[in-house]
Specification:
Length: 260
């Protein structure tokens, strides 16, 4: 008999495996990569993926053996989109930021402990940033968008998150709790977040939180690019643009029916 605890563990494993495949984007992932990223034994990961294949939740390329998200997820996503899809409202803001700055611009949503990129538009500047792409996931506080969201959560929620998620263990000494808290305070003072190349050296990002009708930070607008495009004298200009667009988008989303 499957117990409630067993079912919870199974659901957690399935969710983790699907997120690994989502993060793999168009390249897919091998069984070993899914196992390693999910902290599962390889035989366990293979059995799990095979079961999901039978249900259509994952797909497998026979030539390479790599796993991908499956067609059933597309159908489920299409059904859910009426409630949760806000990319169409956000895209004009993202496009305006890309056109005004020349940088890559994004719309990002909070999903639990992570920030997930939903929309990307590239500006005219020829050197691109590839840290973010549609579907990319990072723990809150890692990239600028996740930091912007984290900074405007209540202090007890930030403390609880940092007590559970050891960012320094996976991201290095720039992500100790003290370092993240210091950046949270800087973000609150400025109104917008700055990531000075902490994920990829020389690849900078800035972001501003977008709020729902109750004042909760659920999304963020962000721009990324190379370091010499984010010098101190330009940051104030970029920060103002981000805050203006985030305010505009927050007002637009407030006028819409409640969304996740």
């Amino acid at each position: 008999m499957v117990t409630y605890a067993d079912s919870g563990t199974l659901i957690g494993r399935v969710s983790t495996a699907l997120r690994v495949l989502s993060a793999a984007n168009d390249t897919g992932a091998t069984t070993s990569e899914v196992a390693r990223s999910s902290s599962l034994a390889r035989p366990t990961a293979h059995r799990l993926l095979t079961s999901l294949l039978g249900e259509g939740f994952v797909d497998r390329d026979n030539a390479s053996g790599r796993w991908f998200l499956g067609p059933e997820l597309y159908l489920l996503g299409a059904s859910a989109s009426a409630r949760y899809e806000i990319s169409s409202q956000a895209r004009p803001s993202v496009l305006r930021m890309a056109e005004a700055t020349g940088e890559s611009a994004f719309f990002v949503a909070r999903r639990g402990d992570e920030s997930v990129c939903l929309v990307r538009e590239d500006g005219s500047f020829p050197i691109r940033s590839f840290v973010l792409y549609e579907g990319a996931r990072f723990p809150l506080g890692v990239v600028a968008s996740g930091l912007a969201i984290l900074a405007f959560l209540p202090d007890p929620e930030i403390e609880e998150f940092l007590s559970r998620v050891d960012l320094a263990a996976t991201r290095g000494p720039s992500y100790t709790s003290d370092a993240v808290c210091a950046r949270v305070e800087q973000t609150r003072r400025r109104g917008y977040a700055v990531n000075p190349g902490l994920v990829v050296e020389g690849d900078w990002g800035m972001a501003a939180a977008v709020f729902d009708e109750t004042g909760v930070a659920k999304w963020a607008l962000t721009i990324t690019g190379i370091e010499n495009r984010f010098r101190v004298e330009r940051q104030e200009e970029l920060g103002k643009l981000l805050l203006d667009e985030a305010h505009r988008l927050s007002r637009a989303l407030i006028r819409q029916p409640s969304r996740g």
